[in-house]
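hey so u asked for the seq, here:
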Amino acid sequence: MERLLYEIKRVVVGQERFLERVMVALLAGGHVLVEGVPGLAKTLTVRTLAAALRGSHKRIQFTPDLLPADLVGTRIYHPHSGEFSTQLGPVFAHLLLADEINRAPAKVQSALLEVMQERQVTIAGESHRLPAPFIVMATQNPIESEGTYPLPEAQLDRFMMKLRVDYPSDDEEFVIVQRVIGPPTAAQAVLSCAQLLEMQAQSRGVYVDPALIRHAVALVGATRRPAAHGLPGLAPLLAYGASPRASIALVEGARALAFLRGRPYVLTADLRDLAADCLRHRIVPSYQALADGISADALVEQVLQAVPAPEIAPPPASSRG
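ran it, structure tokens below
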């Protein structure tokens, strides 16, 4: 994973937190939605990651005229034989880059639901398994609403994390300009899909204390029943809370993050570090919150402050395997 991160950093400047979260998603096998204004290397990062991962990758530019068959595939009739054959779509890849995903209409978005959750495609009643590992990394632009379609809540819930990419610092932007005007740099393939699957299995062996699982459930439960967790003032600001997928994503992400940080056990900091990334797209602020300019991140921060963090000691060596 260090070699993979090094290859990406040879091309992408800065964005340390963002890149760490992408590594977490790779290890946990979760899908990622990346949001940021144009020109912040969202697509470049995903494309570089695909080049550094020795596996198949496809890029789909989402447009308003895209059809579901353009993603998953379709049945083709052959007049000379009178038979049909199945042509599989570009979703059949290890890493799928869905560029500007919010530019496609609802019927295309719904085609991704089975793909992202079941990791299979059903065409004419026949199911086709996607290759393993399979990860969707989607990008969207938050500041341009013309010609865009908001993602349905059911699809947002299938993304393990929603990451926000911010502007680089002046020093980072200086290095970016230097690299762009200099000789082109290309990432080398350093990680095979078999190696990634092996590391995914290893990260699932990281020990998670039951108290941390309860803490993840409490954080998610506070978005549904704020008053029961000492946040009565939060109820009018939340239209809907996060689903059980949020609790699963928090624990699985924390386990992968601990693995990345070189520990065979999860700490409270691992889980709380990922809270905003796993919850911001799963909670729905009410009209009152939107009118008051209160963002989903601000609501998550209130939850983190109200729900006490458990004190977790490192487990005994016998339980770390």
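The CA atoms of residues 176 and 182 lie 10 Å apart. The chain has a mean pLDDT of 85.
lmk if thats what u needed
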